Amino acid sequence: MASDFTFSPDRLKAYVTNKGSYSPKVTVTAAADFKFERAKFDIYFLADNTGSMGSTIDQVNKRAHEILRDLRNRAEEVNADVHYGVGGYWDFGGSALPFENYQGLSGNPDDAVKGLGKWNTGHGSDAYAESAFYGLHQIATDTDKKIGWRKDAKRIIIWVGDAPSNEPIPTRLSGLGEEITEDSVTDLLKARDISVIAISVVEGANPGLNGDPVKNGESWAGKGRPGQATRIADATGGTMADNLTSGQVVDRIIDLGKDQISRMGGLSLVARPKLARYNVTTSPTSAVPPAGGSRTVNFNVNIPFTAETAAPAKTKDWPYDNKGVMTAELELTVAGKATGDTVTVQLLQADLSGTYEIQNASNGQLLSLVANGLGVTPDQDLDNQRWTLVPFQPKAGQEKGGYLLENNDRSAKNRYVKHRSGKVEATTHSTSGAHQWLLIPEGVDDRGFLFSIQPLQTWKKALGYSGGKLEVTEYTGTNYSGGKFDVDREHNQLWHLNAL
């Protein structure tokens, strides 16, 4: 069966240089007759309904029709219909529980406009923090079915407020069977497949949704950490906008709402696990092709710490497939569903010859030449903590490849790293196979690639620092089972190369 999509280019190549970033463009073209499968979006607007929110609520009500129109138009672009619901929350203290569902989910936008018109500032509290978590809990559980989540709809809560939530919310106030915390709300939202867009207003003395719930909370709460809204948005696949003024809120609701609909209903290029461990991403994260014309969308593919061209390695390539080329894929998804259509990404070994600090990912200390041989020590900017990677030059008939690890302390007699029977030691210069080391890129963090350092002669074993000693053991820093490629970025067998 012919695919609905073509890619230009359909193959990317990047050299692992451990610096910079390469961001090639990939154009995805949809077939002229391509149509998105019919979908549904349920979008629920939730806001803090206390006195400090007056300006924000006024702005939303003035532009309510614009908000609903723009979100509906984006949903129609991905062949989805939209139901809107509206609710408000405040804090415990009055006779009523601090949440009201003003409008259940409805396909009539006029119902949503009326619901937004019921947002008010008639509720108060003794502290800045409110009981947002109670409102989120009630919306997610929908025990009386008055929210009206549709079973097969993609679900979004747009949460607007200017203060964090009290935490925990005790059972004596909520009347529920267990207290409500950030963790319990997050787990509930994820279980119900609800994404949260958090819109945080910071004006005057109000700290915003990410404020400190202890400093700004009620005496009966007293727990929690700053950053509640960001963590909830991230955990549920939503987004967060912080430090907004009331005048910026509507535009952010529209922009983030449209973006969320595109992410949940549009086209995306997603790194498969083998590639995702290198933090390969695309911008935009999702896009919607025009209904007519060329029907193309462009993605910039960010491949961190790589380059389009580089001097190739002077040694034997990594022992990967296709003569040392690490091959993986970006897969096209439509509305979150994999299509099987892919862009191939090849990572090639660049020449890493040069001088580095070799820093352990587990403890942050540096591979060092010490009095009794080899060890790891805190960074002291000394020659014995600096290493030069020297391409291995084999003798006739000897297996070629890898690097010598040469220490920069020229006064030392034994300054080359050797592997023998699981042990590592410092020796004089040699071209024996026991001195050949491969640097295998296992993952990426914000500082660069994380390498396992593996003896060429014992593939799949790696240098690590554990129990106070350096040794070569079976590599366990990456879980390859089931095609996961899960990398423990603080594993004792992973190392940063800090160029000097």
Question: How would you describe the overall organization of this protein?
Answer:
It contains 10 helices and 28 strands. By secondary structure, it is of the alpha+beta class. The protein has 3 domains: 5-32 and 266-349, Sandwich (Immunoglobulin-like), CATH 2.60.40; 39-265, Rossmann fold, CATH 3.40.50.410; 354-499, Trefoil (Acidic Fibroblast Growth Factor, subunit A), CATH 2.80.10. The strands form 8 sheets. Strands 1, 2, 3, 10, 11, 12, 13 and 14 form an 8-stranded mixed β-sheet that branches. A 6-stranded mixed β-sheet has the order 6-5-4-7-8-9, with helices on both faces. Strands 19-18-15-28 form a 4-stranded antiparallel β-sheet, with no helix packed on it. A hairpin with a 2-residue loop joins β22 and β23. The model has no long low-confidence stretch (mean pLDDT 94).
